Amino acid sequence: MAERLAIPDHVLSAIASQRQASSEPMAAFFYDLPALAAHGRAMREALPPGVELYYAIKANSEAAIIDTLAPVVDGLELSSGGEIARACACSTPRPWVLSGPGKLDTDMREAMRRGVEAFHVESLGEVARLQAVAAALDHQQPVLLRINPALPEDLSSRLRMAGTATPFGIDESQLADAVRAVDDAPNLALVGFHIHAMSHQRCEQRHQRLLASYLERWPQWRALARAPERVTQLNVGGGIGVNYLQPSEQFDWSGLCQALGQRLAAMDEPPLVRFEIGRFLSAFCGYYAIEVLDTKVSHGEGFIVCRGGTHQFRLPAAQGHDHPVIHLPRDPRQASEGERRSWTVVGQLCTPKDVLSRQQELQGVEVGDLLVLPLAGAYGYNISHADFLCHPRPDQVFIRDAREGSELETTSHRRAEPVS
């Protein structure tokens, strides 16, 4: 069973206010923006000299999330034309880079017109297309080559992005050819290398070894360039995981930064290192609150059926974990006196895969109670199949002040009905 988490009072107040304002059973996301900003500041303050923090907005690209993190981080990492539009609408303009496979020529042109800092190039074919777009615009474009390096097997993780056959990056064996192609492109300038090898890393020491393996090879990679003195950046990606089942035991970010600082200080010509963090920045600020519609026992297993489900919060199903659940009873006295048993928490979808959490020990659960799923600020609603079964989309409530009763901003994504 997962650890129990406490919900801050101002978040509880926001949940109560939103519920009072709604005539329907609740299914809504709540984002604690002051907590998000504080977490971002703490992460950036832990960085050693010569290291930057970018926010990978794919984790959560809602405007309020980007606007909260932009003043805190050094820049933004984007992966599509849609993300370009969102980043450029930010209230605090920040530098940004464009990465990811399968970039459209239209996205390349739009990025150059809007002042992209650099492209992370994924293949030799992309080098040629990017040169053609830059030449047509008479534009000089900095680029980083994304490397798919060989990695020791013991550095593997649940989601490998490199060190094996993937669509991401250029094999290390082809790197010299890729560097030569960029050097030969009159409108491109090689400024560094990008590696994002693994996701869901929860062990600081293992990630420390992964970064050390990059830095050991940095001089050889840099020496491939025709003008190595202009190659100064090493983007080490993100991949820092969140421990959903043991929330008090999270990745030791400060320990990683301290070790990285010591290693960089010992190098003769260290690169400018850049992290692009998504999940580990935004996950902790989010809460998904869903109302209990029904309880039942089937073949000896207890089920709590809630408003919402995996079509709104796909994260547990996508990652294959049982998400922590916090019970908010309507009547605390009845809950304390009710039956305690193991429950499987499910949503409204017509599929047995619509499971948010299993084996949750809860007491006195009744129809009309709320269940709150914390750690819902990253890869939750934004990766979900919200239109499945045409259920209404959930409201997203952004808490801008940590004081109880403060003003809330609500974004509604409800599907528009046809006009008769």
TrEMBL record:
Ranges for domain Orn/DAP/Arg decarboxylase 2 N-terminal come to: 38-283
Q: Coiled-coil stretches, from where to where?
A: none
User: Does the keyword RNA-binding belong to this entry?
Assistant: no
Q: Check the record and name the Pfam families matching this protein.
A: Orn_Arg_deC_N, Orn_DAP_Arg_deC
- Check the record and name the InterPro entries matching this protein: Ala_racemase/Decarboxylase_C, De-COase2_C, De-COase2_N, Orn/DAP/Arg_de-COase, PLP-binding_barrel
CC cofactor: pyridoxal 5'-phosphate
Domain named Orn/DAP/Arg decarboxylase 2 C-terminal is located at 284-377
For this UniProt record, give its keywords in alphabetical order, as a comma-separated list.
Pyridoxal phosphate
Q: Which domain of life is it from?
A: Bacteria
Q: Which family does it belong to?
A: Belongs to the Orn/Lys/Arg decarboxylase class-II family.
Protein name, per record: Type III PLP-dependent enzyme
